[in-house]
């Protein structure tokens, strides 16, 4: 019987989510946290995560994201579903590879964010 091989994720490509979580949880950006966020923002600007890219598009964020963008534009949109009893929206957004599904979820989260500001 051939050996079972596991396909491991490319952890470097997940640094965008690490950066987003670190910034949104208001973790001090010192030491290794600073390095992870710096690299994560570079990954985020490459728009490799379909959901994060859709969220940035929905927010009309066309420049390279900074800590401000992650903490005050992208993060609140991803969290918006949790404030109205739909916490699965953020998880679905961050985990989908389907651009159409991501765009739809991002639009819904964008509307929830805008409604919360009124």
Q: What's the structural blueprint in terms of helices and strands?
A:
Layout lengths: L14 H10 L6 H15 L4 H9 L8 H13 L8 H8 L3 H19 L1
Helix pairs in contact: 1-2, 1-4, 3-5, 3-6, 4-6, 5-6
Question: How is this structure best described in words?
Answer:
Helix content is 63%, strand content 0%. It is an all-alpha fold and 118 residues long. The protein has a single domain, classed as inorganic pyrophosphatase (n-terminal core) (Alpha-Beta Complex), CATH 3.90.1640. Helix 1 packs across helix 2, helix 1 (15-24) crosses helix 4 and helix 5 packs antiparallel against helix 6. The longest helix has 19 residues, at 99-117. It is globular. The termini are far apart.
Task: Give me a quick take on this structure.
The protein is mostly helical and 118 residues long.
Q: What is the rounded Rg?
A: 15 Å
Secondary-structure element order, N to C: HHHHHH
Topology, number of strands: 0
Please name the CATH architecture.
Answer: Alpha-Beta Complex
What's the overall average pLDDT, rounded?
A: 93
Percentage of β-strand residues: under 5%
CATH class identity: Alpha Beta
Largest sheet: none
> What is the CATH fold-level name?
inorganic pyrophosphatase (n-terminal core)
Give the number of domains.
1
Structural class: mainly alpha
Please state the oligomeric state of the protein chains shown: single chain
* Form type: globular
The number of helices is 6
Through-space gap between termini: 62 Å
Helix content: 55-70%
In the predicted model, the low-confidence regions spanning at least 5 consecutive residues are: none
